[in-house]
């Protein structure tokens, strides 16, 4: 049974998409069958993995609203173990159209349920909002990864997110766990970066992943090649960090492979 992990934080620019595509690619390199679902109308994960969002006419949104089978819209990527459910701009309208549906928070969960058996991991990239699609992702997920940027106001909005998680645990998904808080864009030379690491670790202790994602220019360049960083700078700091994260998550879930 595949583990469903949502990457969420309503704050924009914290590294959700970078994490979704590169964690998924790293899991795939380790030969875990992995599906990334792009649940953000900005479709950055879609283009980052080499799929032109303009050519996408069916996304997770049509599956949720029109009952289309997710299996018919899964795209293969260049990586053997990595598949993608792309997004496109119309996902913006989904929240409005879903308002009157029964069980509107549970649509994504039932859409995903038919492919859960086929994957080891299903990674959902969320948009920077706590709207209905993100609520759907958190209701469908077994756990959430919360990227936190090592920058000013790192903890801003985190209280609201944790509160939303509690509400979802109470009303919609009692089994939702926090997989971990992921520190991103860490710059070893900056005192501020180190202060944020200390502060987040002090507050959240074991909830914080041991792996820290460094600021790394290759990570910001890779989407323009339509590739995860591991596909063109495999030995670089960014690729190594996301590979470490994949190992950490596999180990945490008792899925580490012995070579
Ligand atoms: P979000 O999905 O949370 O909005 P993104 O993953 O799109 O955030 O990241 C925001 C911007 O920061 C993007 O331009 C991305 O390329 C860049 N970025 C993200 N993580 C890193 C990193 N570790 N090092 C350098 N740039 C990064
Ligand atoms: Mg994003």
Automatic annotation (TrEMBL):
InterPro entries: AAA_dom, DNA_Partitioning_ATPase, P-loop_NTPase. Gene3D superfamilies: P-loop containing nucleotide triphosphate hydrolases. It holds the Pfam family AAA_31. CDD domains: ParAB_family. Residues 3-178 form the AAA domain. This is ATPase involved in chromosome partitioning. It comes from Belliella baltica (strain DSM 15883 / CIP 108006 / LMG 21964 / BA134).
